[in-house]
Write a structure and sequence with these properties.
By secondary structure, this protein is mainly α. The chain contains seven helices and no strands.
């Protein structure tokens, strides 16, 4: 899915569902950062596979490490935004690294069934997840859309829980 917002659906659903284990900003950025690769290939008309090295688990892991280093330095700047959305989180290097790695690997797993040029197990030249269908990617796109709907529901439930916590009278 070159530079599409579809990866935000699963990213939001997973990060909202596992809020205590996943760093939301890192997970969301990591879920789409890999698509910089096909974007650059298209914009600069490079003689390079649309889904090249960084759409492999090895390349994705390298990006995850780099993103972890960046996010560990700038993550605190996202705190006011998360507070505004009532999604306060503690920050830890371990959580950022876990979020970055999981989101990038999820991206690769979602793209692999759709694109023959992805080599998830680079340096091996095969894609065991590829499915040749009449409508390539239809099920992956639907999963992403339904995950976004699920994320909205989870967020609404979290907001309602937050409101209930605020309205509770103090115990005497």
């Amino acid at each position: 899915m070159p530079f599409t917002p579809f990866h935000f659906g699963p990213g939001l659903l997973i990060s909202l569902t596992f809020l205590s284990f996943i760093d939301i900003p890192t997970f969301l950025i990591a879920s789409v950062i890999i698509d910089v690769e096909p974007f650059l290939v298209l914009v600069f008309q490079l003689n390079y596979p649309l889904h090249g090295f960084f759409h492999s688990f090895l390349g994705g892991f390298i990006v995850a490490v780099l993103l972890t280093m960046v996010m560990s330095k700038i993550r605190r700047y996202f705190t006011p935004l998360l507070t505004f959305f009532k999604l306060e989180q503690s920050i830890s290097f371990k959580k950022i690294f876990f979020s970055s790695t999981c989101a990038i690997f999820l991206h690769i797993l979602l793209d692999s069934p759709m694109y023959l040029d992805i080599r998830p197990f680079f340096p091996f030249e095969f894609n065991p997840f590829y499915r040749s269908t009449i409508w390539p990617g239809l099920s992956e796109y639907l999963i992403c859309v339904w995950c976004f709907v699920g994320a909205i529901l989870v967020y609404i439930i979290r907001l309602l829980q937050h409101k209930i916590k605020i309205k509770k009278p103090p115990l005497m």
